[in-house]
Amino acid sequence: MPARVPSDQLQISIDPQFNYDSQLQDLRNDVKKIKQLAYAIEDERKLQGADINTLEEYMEKAQMMLKKASRRLTAVSKQSRSFLMLWVVLFGLGLFFVV
Asked: How far is CA 97 from CA 83, 85, 86, 88, 93, in A?
């Protein structure tokens, strides 16, 4: 029976056949892949951020154009109402003089 180890220590037995170099190389390769993935994610985030900023600018421009068009339509609407009223008055006067 093995000797008892105090509770604050850890005893590890490693197989002598274990290949440290191979495992270490595999870990390095995995770290490189994760690093490349992180860089790819960062690049994609930057591209999407730029696209979102461009879309926001286009939306602001479109909103300003819509406001401008709305003001023009309001002015045209007021003008057409007054023009229509002129035709109604002329028609009424014409009818009054004819009858």
From this structure: 21, 18, 16, 14, 6
